[in-house]
DNA sequence: CTCCCGATAT
DNA sequence: ATATCAGGAG
């Protein structure tokens, strides 16, 4: 397992390759950003961004989506996976925002996860990207990278990974480290194509060493 | 744990 | 053909 200083060093190496990291989800308001993050579950940002402009034009405010027909919402997002569940979430979420939060996106974990379709990961993303509140959202990329590098152990759950990262990284790094890990997972150390041959972290990466032994790549 | 689920890369 | 993609609810 990588210790604190090794973990910080690994993240800093990633930062040199991706100096300007931020969310790639497009949105013009906190409300629309929340919807985009809900839609992004098990889907690529690209597919979400291709659907959201029309959706957001049709439903500018929580009040508009709260009274919408779920079937109509489905038509706007049917090119995204899991679209039937997501359509329900969007309407129910908007209704709750309207009825319980004055149509404002709340700023606490507890309130955010009370919304339909919003779990811990989505809440973490909103806290960090909308309100600049330090969190480390653990998605599929963050989990994979941390496991390959042995920043965490193979059996750790996303919630455990989040706790370990918060211990190993200074709070001032959390939000940027999160985005950096996403970019690293998306463009450098992909699930099916780790690109170990040219990886600057190869020498400290347990997964890289394993692949070398087994002659993968 | 299972179910949800289209688009894309491999 | 199959794995993967900014997961969450029941």
TrEMBL record:
Its cofactor is [4Fe-4S] cluster. InterPro entries: DNA_glycosylase, Endonuclease3_FeS-loop_motif, Endouclease-III_FeS-bd_BS, HhH-GPD_domain, HhH_base_excis_C, HhH_motif, Nth. Gene3D superfamilies: Helix-hairpin-Helix base-excision DNA repair enzymes (C-terminal), Hypothetical protein, domain 2. It holds the Pfam family EndIII_4Fe-2S. Its EC number is 4.2.99.18. [4Fe-4S] cluster binds at residues 189, 196, 199, 205. It comes from the Bacteria. GO terms for biological process: base-excision repair, AP site formation. It catalyses: 2'-deoxyribonucleotide-(2'-deoxyribose 5'-phosphate)-2'-deoxyribonucleotide-DNA = a 3'-end 2'-deoxyribonucleotide-(2,3-dehydro-2,3-deoxyribose 5'-phosphate)-DNA + a 5'-end 5'-phospho-2'-deoxyribonucleoside-DNA + H(+). PANTHER family: A/G-SPECIFIC ADENINE GLYCOSYLASE/ENDONUCLEASE III, ENDONUCLEASE III. Belongs to the Nth/MutY family. NCBIfam families: nth. DNA repair enzyme that has both DNA N-glycosylase activity and AP-lyase activity. The DNA N-glycosylase activity releases various damaged pyrimidines from DNA by cleaving the N-glycosidic bond, leaving an AP (apurinic/apyrimidinic) site. The AP-lyase activity cleaves the phosphodiester bond 3' to the AP site by a beta-elimination, leaving a 3'-terminal unsaturated sugar and a product with a terminal 5'-phosphate. This is Endonuclease III.
């Amino acid at each position: 397992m990588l210790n604190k200083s090794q973990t910080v060093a690994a993240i800093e190496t990633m930062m040199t390759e991706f100096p300007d990291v931020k969310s790639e989800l497009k949105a013009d308001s906190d409300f629309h950003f929340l919807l985009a993050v809900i839609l992004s579950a098990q889907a690529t940002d690209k597919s979400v961004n291709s659907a959201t402009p029309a959706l957001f034009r049709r439903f500018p405010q929580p009040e508009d989506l709260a009274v919408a027909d779920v079937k109509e919402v489905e038509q706007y997002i049917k090119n995204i996976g899991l679209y039937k569940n997501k359509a329900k979430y969007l309407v129910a979420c908007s209704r709750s925002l309207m009825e319980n939060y004055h149509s404002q996106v709340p700023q606490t974990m507890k309130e955010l996860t009370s919304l339909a379709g919003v779990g811990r990961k989505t809440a973490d993303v909103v806290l960090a990207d909308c309100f600049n509140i330090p969190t480390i959202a653990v998605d599929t990329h963050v989990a994979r990278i941390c496991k390959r590098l042995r920043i965490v152990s193979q059996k750790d759950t996303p919630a455990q990974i989040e706790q370990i990262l918060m211990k190993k990284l200074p709070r001032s790094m959390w939000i940027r480290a999160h985005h950096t890990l996403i970019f690293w997972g998306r463009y450098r150390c992909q699930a099916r194509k780790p690109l170990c041959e040219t990886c600057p972290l190869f020498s400290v990466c347990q997964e890289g060493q394993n692949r070398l032994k087994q002659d993968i790549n």
